[in-house]
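Notes from the pairing session

We agreed to fold both candidates in a single pass and log them together. This is the raw record for the first candidate, unedited. Please don't reformat it; downstream parsing expects exactly this layout.

Candidate A
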Amino acid sequence: MSFSIADFEKLARNAGPDRSAALLRACAELYASEDKHTERERRLFQSIVYDLFGTCGSDGKRVLADLVAAHPETPKPVLRLLYREPIDIARQVILRSPQLDELEMLRIANLGGAHLQTLAERPDLPLLALQAIVMADDLGAIGALIGNRSVSLEPVPFEKLLQAVTRNHRLGDQLALRPDIAGERLVEIFLDLGRAGRERVVAAVEHKLLGASVGRKPIPVTTKVSGNGHYPLYKAIYSRDRELLLSLLAQEFDLRRTLVERILDDATGEPIAVLLKASGIPTDRAIAAFSDIIPTLAQSSDKVRSLTRFFDRLSVKAALYLIDQWRISDQPAMRVPPHLVSPVHKLAAAESQRRLKAQVTQPTGDADNDRGKSPKKVDAA
């Protein structure tokens, strides 16, 4: 690495406040002009940066970061100085430096905030960095990671992703539209998705059911329409008797009232379309029902047509499958984070699972457990 002595003497004589920044820039430009350096040159450059970094100001640090961020031989101590600075200086290093290994990325992840979110945008994240980003429980960082199509989310703890997109339609749709995420894995957060995400989930479920129908392993669908006729349901819908409708749907599909309430409150209507399809209501009656259940839909004919197309494309079997999965994922014991479950709740959850298992097996004969009654049978499709 050669230096222009005259240029450096001129910079050194400058007593102005920008002398450190000018010297640092000159050294960085010289260093960045060559791809390969000797060990002595690397140490010299590192020493110069250490001497001038504290007095070069934010602009000088920003210029240094721009010049050396992508260089293949920038000393790691220099990179550490830069990525610990505010994000407008650190960003180039975090995104572009080929020198950042897993250990350096974990150090950046520990900085949190904007540094963690910027790291999530990096195109070559190793497994440990991916897991650190997800486990940090930073919604902004997880959102950036979901939007980063350069990395695969397959090795990421999927439950953490599901927790992040809960009640966040934008993030949910981004997750649902990723090619490395199977649509059927998102069934339990169907209500947290926007229209695009919901349509992809339904398409994935239909594809899965189609595979089952041509000789693959059958997919269990346990819900059965009661066959009591649609009159009570029509009456509740057209009279806009929300309480009656809520009770009928909760009873018909064995869903908790809180879940049915959320379905009825959904503004775009796909969840209620699923319930109506599973009830066997024909399309013409369903169209009329949409506006009675969701009055705001009547203000937009485009939304009604879009929901009608969704209803027509949805098969009864897919609707029943979706409802089964909602029922399973809505069990209270399954919705509580594991670290918050008390021993009492764990015992209650275990008892709930035991009883659920007993419903699809023969009676145990244990009077304390069976209370003299045979367990209910679950119909299989």
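Candidate B (folded immediately after A)
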Amino acid sequence: MTYEEFIKNMLGNYANFTAFTEGAAFNAHSLATKQDGVITNQTGGLFLFLRPHQDITEIVGQVSREISEMLGVDNMMMYGEGIAHATVFVAKQGPNYDAKKDKEFSSLKGKLSLVCQKMVTGTKMKKCPAADCTLGFAFNETTTILRGKPNIEFFKMTEAAVNHATELGLKVSMPWGAHITVGRFANHVDTTKVQEVARLLRSKTFSEGLMPYVEVCTGHYQTEGLSFKIERIDRHQI
């Protein structure tokens, strides 16, 4: 896959979020949300991810709180600024997965650590990986995201990580985009509330400029009810 192909695929995925958001804002014919599969399955996993700059994580946390307050805490899984991230790949996941009870955890953790180090020391880059966030926020029937359009350094670093993980025997794939999850819907929310969410997201705009990623991390995540938790294992500054 080339960088251009990655961007084309990503924008195709974003288009679904854009269509839902624009439809909710201007022509909400029976649009409603439904429970996200991560909540339904109480999904957990082991993964490699990038942490964006604090300026972005604070905005993500703020928007997540505003949506939760708008819909009610029982209707939203919030993603606070402490867990805002862009996923590179997931090494293992499943319903009710608890990494600490996984017999493969030690082996997987070691492989993820090697990949994490390789991303930082083995990728030649002229610039830091970053993403243009002027595409803004959008949502579909299950999830709200901040859409990022990454630079080629993001693509190179991610591709190197996936290739190295594959060499180590991990079954992983490239991410479908450079987005940050803002929140997941927990229940059916009717058209009126969907319109309110759309108007809120459309009011949140970004000036020109790239958002840098400042850390590459490994960790495991767990879903407990409507709480999404991440425990970091490795953490390297970029």
